[in-house]
Amino acid sequence: MLKIDGIILASGFSRRMGSDKLLLPFGEDLVVERVVKTALKSRLSKVILVYRNARVGEIGKKYGVETIKNHKAKLGQAESVKSGLKRATGDGYLFIAGDQPLLSCSLVNGLTHAFATSGKGIIIPTLDGEIHMPILFSNKYRKALQRVHGEKGGFEIISGNKGDIHWYHVEDQMDVCDINTENQYRELISRKDRIDNGL
Fold first, then answer.
1. Which of 31, 37, 57, 151 is the most exposed place for a label (fewest CB within 10 A)?
2. CA–CA separation, 194 vs 199, rounded Å?
3. Alpha-carbon torsion 55, 58, 62, 64, what sign?
4. Which pLDDT band holds residue 170 (cuts at 50, 70, 90)?
5. Contact 168, 126 (CB under 8 A)
6. What are the residues facing 94 on neighbouring strands?
7. Phi, psi angles (nearest 5°) of residue 135
8. Which residues face 122 on adjacent strands?
9. Widest distance between CA atoms in the chain
10. Rounded (5°) CA angle 54-56-61
């Protein structure tokens, strides 16, 4: 069976929010805490949390996931990718955004299943023609991922390997929605409440 490592990218600066969005309350959890719990419930072989804020790192330790501090977070998301790879040992790597609190186990497991069955080395969720996280890369791209830089992360690899991509169509926008603004945060909270109430 293929082993897929989940790498949660959680070392951003939340500049548009004005405070660390990963530590915002989301029901009984914090935003990043909910992402960690979803990753742990899925079929990932291991979960790695890349953090900058010590409080975020403590959440990872609380749930027993592997944690690694990103000392170069100011250089962009690519440094989170490279930091996570230092602990990754699987056949593939699922890069998960730490600010997607409505991410579901079904989506995570669907992406890993697509990797196992599609014959493709890159699995990308897509909705209305747009690319979303989490994105899965085969370990054959490990060296290429170790060379990425800036805010693009692995997107330059995607643009250069379009023939090796499986596009995984997502039905529900909330499953891949992240938090960048106060309005997005409030919308996700509202959606969570509607889900919890069966609406």
1. 151
2. 5
3. positive
4. very high
5. yes
6. 6, 136
7. -120, 135
8. 137, 165
9. 46
10. 90
Residue 184 tokens read as 């997005």
Please write the tens of the pLDDT for every residue from 93-136.
999 999 999 999 999 999 999 999 999 999 999 999 999 999 99
What confidence tier does 85 reach under pLDDT thresholds 50, 70, 90? very high
Which pTM was predicted? Answer: 0.94
Neighbours of 2 (CB within 10 A): 14
Per-residue pLDDT tens over the stretch 128-148:
999 999 999 999 999 999 999
| SS3 label, residue 170 | coil
Cis status, amide bond into 125, omega within 30 of 0: no
What domains does the chain contain, in order, with CATH numbers? Answer: 4-196 (3.90.550.10)
* CA distances in angstroms from 1 to 27, 47, 92, 164, listed in the order given: 35, 17, 12, 21
